[in-house]
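Notes on consecutive records. When two proteins share a document, each keeps its own sequence and its own token line. Never mix them. Below: protein one.
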Amino acid sequence: CIAVSFAVAFLTQSLLFATYFHQSASNADKNAVPAVQAFVVDSKSHDTVPIEPSRQLETVMEGVAVSVMLKAPKWFHRRYTVMLHNALANFPPSWKIQVFYNDKWLEKDVLPLHPGLRKLKSGHDRIIWTQIPEKMTRWKPKDIMKSVWLWENMKHENVFLFGGNGALCGNTDVSLDTFLGYDYVGAPWGAYGGKGGDGSSHSFRHRSVMMEILKEHPPDDGDQDYKYFLKHMVKDSTKYKVADRDATVAFGGVSDGTPFLLSGTQPNLNFTTRESILFLCPELKVIFPSLHEPTCFGAHPKPEIAEVPYAHSMTYPLKDASISFALGDVSSSTVSMNYHCIRPME
């Protein structure tokens, strides 16, 4: 009798547990987040298509912002830390930052001077560090940018190239999605009727298109990479979709709103326009600290007076005694001043 009672109790308890787990599993199924199908913009048809299972890496990311750290003077690589933070702050979490770098140079000449950059390199979950092969570190930057190796090692189809001569604007009302349907977008320029855009500092591109052009038209000239790619894209405008003038203005131009980014010192703007755009995109002043100082050439409101391309110093007249006193014993009426608010030498 006792054995029968024990068996009945055991079976009852087992049924209760089974019922509980069944209900829990049913509730879990009801509350489970359904699998989300990821999509990508096809570089040929420009339609939105599902990502194949074999491309699972790209379901994690929606794009990659890429910078190349090859070799640069000290005054330029002081920008590296803020460049990466600017990208991290302005790209959505679904975008990774990928840095192609010269390992020996970075470890010896850069990281010892920049603890903040070392922290980012030591382990940030959104930054991918890709070492450039040693033989390629002796190449010119434009040749690296036109190498099959570089584009093969980009981690996504959507590639946003950025450098140290500009900044993404946090106050922009332009969405990154605006540019994803184009094969190439750069800042406003006068070539090709304004199509494509200047990609010397920042640009958006589709990896597959760059790879296709490199394989069909192996580079054999001294053009900068963006000029080389655009030359072939514009020739076959039915095959490739390059940005129109409006898209380049939204990307990096000065208009009524705040662009997605600003690059260069904007030397052709008048004082009032420059002041207004810097209020809207103050990030550019982090890159060019003396940008709106009247003594900083390259930022002078009258570029025909003070803008001297690719120079590193200028001579200014000493017009009052206080300046002369501050500088110490000056034997002449002029003094040469160095500023780092200008574009680097090419």
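Protein two starts on the next line and is unrelated to protein one.
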Amino acid sequence: AALTSALADSSLEVVVNVSLDGTGKCSNSTTLPFLDHMLDQLGTHGLLDVSVEVRGRTQDVTDEQVNGAVGTAVGQAFADLGLCEHHVSSTFSAPLDESLVGATLSLDGPSQLTYDVGFPTKLVGTYETRLPELFFQNFIQACGMSLSLIRQTPKNRGNSHHIIEATFKAVARALRAAIDEVDQRPVEGTLVKREASIHRKTGETDVDVDIKLDGKGTSDCDTMIPHLDLMLKDLAETSGISFKVECEGDIHIDDHHTNEDIAIVIGKALQEALGNRSGINRMGFASATVGEAQVEVTLDLSGRPHLEYELEIPDERVGTYDTQLVEHFYQSIVNNSGTTLHVRGISGTNSPDLIAAGIHAFGAALKMAVRFDDRRLGKIASSKGVL
């Protein structure tokens, strides 16, 4: 879609070109540098070719007017593409380090915005943090979609730049998921061999890990910790990644070193198997239910290790397994694979079910993130071009 939108009682014009069959190419010049950066996120993470140019801005035109006019023009472009004729909904939560924002949209509306995204500061550079709400309000009014944006981390924490960027990334990923459902686009595979074998020996443990990212979801694990063997079996089945793990550890002391070192080596193996991460989705989001327990996981294979762990496991032990080690398991994978990971307990009080739901959601999110998409043409899913 291509259109030119004019701001009433002004010389301002907004020229927009959007292609749904894009590869994430962006060229934006709105006179608001931070908004340009956010439109880059919309294109890069939504696999949309996006070009927005603001022309004829005079000194009497405010940033608020430009921001709103761009939101309207981009929304009109999406309306012209006919997306709102389809009864399709999608949800995606996008992280950026400590920040996490969830987006839920319905292509056929009704045109309504739910916006619960708070900011610790009023400005990011010279861009006002109140302006993203106006952008999305004008966007959905013009295109007819309904959109809910909810910040999923505590309002008294976070970096304003990260929060806004996570918001645009969440919208972009939710949009792409909805568009692909409309198109009934098949999942693409890869001929690249993505495997790794890592051996690590310390004075406490001796660990061997073999993984195949494009495996059959099989596991052959002898960790000396029965519940960890079960967790890895569940992780393999839900992620489609094949694992082989062998370990000899000092479990006569406790399970801590063995649990940690196995997760360290799994993280290192993921890092090696992913290579430079070009061509992959990069982000994954999943919710899993086991019994009465529900856990949501969002991850970003960003090269930036960060864990937000909000999973309360009421029992100290599940069998002989120390439940404190669950968080440590995730932390060690995150640190050694360069992953941003958010684990959120939604409901449930049964400890085994909570652990299992977390692993199932982690596996499903990882499966989404490592998947190749031929539209990325070997490119890295980042507006920077590198991770």
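For the record: DSSP finds eight helices and 20 strands in the chain.
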